[in-house]
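Fold it.
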Amino acid sequence: MQAVYRTGPLPQGALEASAAFHGDHVAVIRELLADGPDCLVVVFPPAAHDHRGWRRAAIADLARAHAPVRVLGLADGDAAAVARTLDYLETAQGVTGQLLAADGAAEQNAA
């Protein structure tokens, strides 16, 4: 079973967004992980590139702390790309602790 947690809007500044995530969302995420899903995907809103570092660290720390549950981060973007990525992650047993982007850009560039 895969669980999905959407943070909803976060502040624009990376420092403020990190503080809001850790203050408002980590406890809820830990409760979801305690329920024992096979995988939890945290969906973040779109943000500037300077958010990548804190998001990657948070997801990696949660994955290490809650193994063998797989924990992944997904930067929201294109709704269809998010849906396809969630479908893939549900069966990608070896993928954990990663921050992925679902913006549809790769598909647009391939066309």
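The beta strands are 2-6, 39-44, 70-75, 99-101.
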